[in-house]
Amino acid sequence: MAEEQQVPLLKKVYYQNCSGCRVEQLKETRRGLPIKELLSIWTVVLCTALPISSLFPFLYFMIRDFHIAKREEDIGYYAGYVGSAFMLGRALTSVAWGMVADRYGRKPVIMIGTITVVIFNTLFGLSVNFWMALSTRFLLGSLNGLLGPIKAYAAEIFRDEYQALGLSTVSTAWGIGLIIGPALGGFLAQPAEKYPDIFSEDSLFGRFPYFLPCLFISAYAMIVTVACCWLPETLHSHKENNKSREDSYDALEAANGGSNAKEKEQEIEGSESTSNESLFKNWPLMSSIIVYCVFSLHDMAYTEIFSLWAVSPRKHGGLSYSTDDVGVVLAISGILVSSYPPFGIKTCWKKIHSALLSLRLGKHICELKFFLGPFSFHYEICLCSFTIKFHQVDWSLAYL
User: Fold this and answer.
1) Highest mean pLDDT of the ranges 255-264, 271-280, 289-298
2) Are 235 and 19 in contact (CB under 8 A)?
3) What is the rounded distance in angstroms from the CA atom of residue 183 to the CA atom of residue 325?
4) Could you tell me the end-to-end alpha-carbon distance of the chain, in angstroms, rounded to an integer?
5) Which residues, including other chains, have CB under 8 Å from residue 157's CB and lie 6 or more apart?
6) Where is the Major facilitator superfamily (MFS) profile domain (predicted)?
C-alpha cells in the first residue's frame, strides 16, 4: 500500500494587498541573521533615546541662565521639573499610542515619534525661558510613543529564533542612547565658550548656547525619519474571510472523523478571554513588570541625579564638573555598553543556562555601582562607578 502523503490540515492563507502577510512570507523564506532589520530597529530606538537624557549635563546651567531660581540651591528643584516632563508626557500617552499602533499600524506611530523628535527637540534647544523648556519637553514625551510599538515591531519582524535578539537590540540601543545622549549634551553645549574659534558670541549658537546638541540629535532624527519610509509594516490590514475559515474547519472535521472543531475553537476562545480577565493575577508576568519598573526608575534617576550632582558646586556637595567632564565620563561608559551588545548577553546566558541567574547577576552589579557612587569624589572613581552599568537587567528580562 502506498504511503499517504501528509498535507497540513490548515494551510496559511496570505493576502496579496496585506503588508503583514508579505512580512510573514518573507520570514518563511529568509534564512540567516537579519542584519538589516536589527540595524533599522537599533537606529529608531537610538533616535528616541538620545533626547531623553541629552539635557542632563547642561540642564543645571540652562536653569541658571533662565534666572527663575531665587537661590542657587533651588536650581535642582526646577531642573527636576524639566527633566521629568518628558517621562510624564510619555506615561500619560503610552497606552493611547499602543492602541493607535494596533489599529493603524506600527510604522505610522514610529514615524510620528521620529518627527516629534525633530520638531520639539529643536524647539527645546531654542527655549528662552523655563516654561518654554518645560512645555516642549512635555510635548516631546507626549507625542513620542514609539517605544512600545517598536518592541511589538521587533517581535513581529523576526523569525522565532531571532525574536529574543530583536528585543535585546531594543534594550541595547535604549541603554546606549541614555548614555551617548548626555555625552553629546556635555560636549556640544555652550559651544561659544568652549570653541570660540568656531562659534562666536554673536552667532546663533552664542545666543542659544544649548541649541547645538539639540540640533545634532534633531538632524539624526530627520535622517531616521526619511529612512523609516522604507520600513515594512507588520500589522495585518485584512479581515479574516469567514468562508475560507469555515472551509478549513470542514476539512479539519473530515480529517478528525467528524469532530466538532468549532466547539474546540469556542473553548479556546473562552480560555483566552479568561486568561485576559485574570491578567493582573498572573504573578510571573506582573513580577517581571515590577522588576522592569524598578530598574527603569533606577536607570533614569541615576542618570539625572549623577549629571546634576557632577556639575553642582562643591560648596553644595557637588563635584564642580564642567559639561565636558560629564561628557567624558558618559562617553566612556557608553563605549563600555556598546562593546557588550546583545550577542554577548546571549552567549553569557547560554553559559549560565538561567535567565533568572543572569538577572540576579545584573542586580548585584547595580548594587556595586550604588556602593561606589557616594565615594566618587575623584574623577577616576566617578568614572569607574558610572561605567558599571551593563543594562544586563533589561537583556535578562528579554529571555524570561
Assistant:
1) 289-298
2) yes
3) 9
4) 49
5) 23, 27, 34, 37, 41, 166, 232, 234
6) 37-400
Three cell numbers at 304? Answer: 539625572
pLDDT in tens, 325-339: 777 777 676 666 555
Q: How far apart are CA 276 and CA 54, in angstroms?
A: 39
- Around Cβ 356, how many Cβ atoms within 10 Å? 11
Would you state the cell numbers that stand for residue 45, as one nine-digit string?
530606538
Rounded Cα gap, residues 335 and 45, in angstroms: 17
> Are 203 and 192 in contact, with CB atoms under 8 Å apart?
yes
Distance CA 308, CA 59 (A): 8
Contact 94, 146 (CB under 8 A): no
Residue 93 has what pLDDT? 92
The per-residue pLDDT for range 153-173, each reduced to its tens digit, is: 888 888 877 777 888 788 788
> What distance in Å separates the CA atoms of residue 221 and residue 346, rounded to the nearest whole number?
29
State the residue for C-alpha cell 498535507: 7
Grid coordinates 510624564 are at which residue? 88
3-state DSSP assignment of residue 227: helix
- In terms of Cβ atoms closer than 10 Å to its own Cβ (0-12, 13-18, 19+), residue 89 is buried
CA angle 313, 315, 319 (to 5 degrees): 40
Distances (CA, A) of 251 to 192, 243, 263: 75, 12, 15
